[in-house]
Amino acid sequence: MTAFSWAYSDKVREHFTNPRNVLQKDEDFKEDGKGLVGNVKCGDEMLMLIKVDKDTQTISDARWQTYGCASAIASTSVLSEMIKGMPLDKAFTLGPKEIVKQLDELPDHKIHCSVLGDKALRTAINDYYKRNNLTDRIREEKAKTVCKCMQVTDHEIENAVLEGARTYAQLQEYTKLGTVCGQCKDEAAVLLEQYKKKHFGK
Amino acid sequence: MNKRTVYLDNNATTPLHPRVKERIKQNLDTYGNASSFHFLGRTARREVETARREVAAFINAVPEEITFVGSGSEANNTVLNIFSSCCNVFQGCDLKKTEILVSTIEHPCILEAANCLQKKGVSVKYINVDKTGRLDLNNLEQKLSPQTGLVSVMMANNEIGTIQDIKAIAAIAHRQGARMHTDAVQALGKIPVDVDELGVDFLSLSAHKVYGPKGVGVLYTRKGTPFCPFIRGGHQEQGKRAGTENTLGIIGLGEAVMALKDDMESDCRKYHSLRAKLKQGITEKIPDIQFNGHQEYSLPGTLNVSFRGAEGESILLYLDLEGIAASTGSACASGSLDPSHVLLAAGIGVEYAHGSIRFSIGRENTEADIDYVLEKLPPVITRIRDMSTAY
After folding, report:
1. Domains of chain B
2. H or E segment to which residue A62 belongs
3. Which ipTM value was assigned to this complex?
4. Which one of the listed residues A69, A113, A147, A181 is annotated catalytic?
5. What is the pTM of this model?
6. Is residue B332 annotated as a catalytic residue, yes or no?
């Protein structure tokens, strides 16, 4: 019998089988910032803890835990390596695309898992700013309502794209946007293209 | 790689029985079209009809009631299609029947076909199941009406293994003048399937779940039941299913059924004992678990278990790396966002549904396979829980 081919890339497999920087249950990791996103009901939950070098404003160490599938485990693991030594400002701009690149690609429908990693990280960074009275540096992600009838935000459109929506019809299926008055169609279509480019543009 | 492999996904599909392999090999040159009148056609016809008799005898039907189709899914779709509003049978023969009833834990091929019927104007009602996956008969009685044309309830569930009391369900359906269909794809070869004992009008089977080849299914239709072909354009299968018969597949199915006749009793005893061993081992070695399904009315080889705080796809892939093949009800493994509709319909918490693993035992499994799983599984669960925010 030949070697098993695996469901994901070798890099994903490597991080899945040897995850880096996992927060041990009995570990006393004194974090400077903490971010917890997702929830178990949705199938993915992620905790990111960071230590910050206050002089250089860079991330000096990180720990994480995740409840989720193989790509969620691998993407959090790889993210925890990427951010060590990274300035907070740069870490804040990391998106799913950068994480996926480090993993040598993930199937499209799996990308919503790795999105949690960067969200957890941004939450942790904001938490650090809060704890250190650097509130002017906090950048909250405010959602904008695009479809007023069905109350669909730009964040939901972005998530739908990450989960596989590629056409306006698919976007409607995922989010139900534009199914009442239809006035948001143009704006939603622009956002759809924008997010497709952001996450899947080569 | 000389790695040990343990296949515990026999509800997904099964390996060919050695007898089936041999029989197919012997018939590789039986290439005649079973509808042709010449000697080659007649040879193929003879083989196809032999298989039909075997299948019929095994489920206590007569050969004319057996239609060979392309899969269990096709058999199921065919039945629901009969009761679509565009088929004259529904409104013609069964006047004023405008409604069908299906259980909430049917295979997607029933649920999606029902959904499609709904879009065509048929009223579809869903019958609830309890926590163990057993059909709520009171709910069935409440939802049945003189307008109900068809009740479709699977005989045994593929994910949790729960067996339904089809005989009682059919009796209730018939009392209201509805036809009864059961998807017996998972039941065949594991529990007795007797169409007269069950009292069903339609019954679906699949060859590859019983050590036969893929691409062959069976639809049983009781004599005199209204019918409408799903695939049209030929006189094959008494006009019930167009398309040249899949001779090799049908021959393989016939042999698989004959093997069941010989082996089923001893195989099932083994499934029972291996399942009990696996269940006991998991209970002893792993805390915070939950077994899903009915513990008595269950297929002998199906064990569905949830591990709190551990996500199913991760469990599945760590087991995969150990050479163990199982299945999960987690959303992550399906590519959708929702976990198993069966577990949710049975009222299993979403967290438990995400962490569910199905082991399904088959005729090639041994005690040593179960020992191997019981050695590899506990550290996998510990490892995942150690990384988990939810444990």
Report:
1. 6-14+264-387 (3.90.1150.10), 18-259 (3.40.640.10)
2. strand A58-67
3. 0.85
4. A113
5. 0.89
6. yes
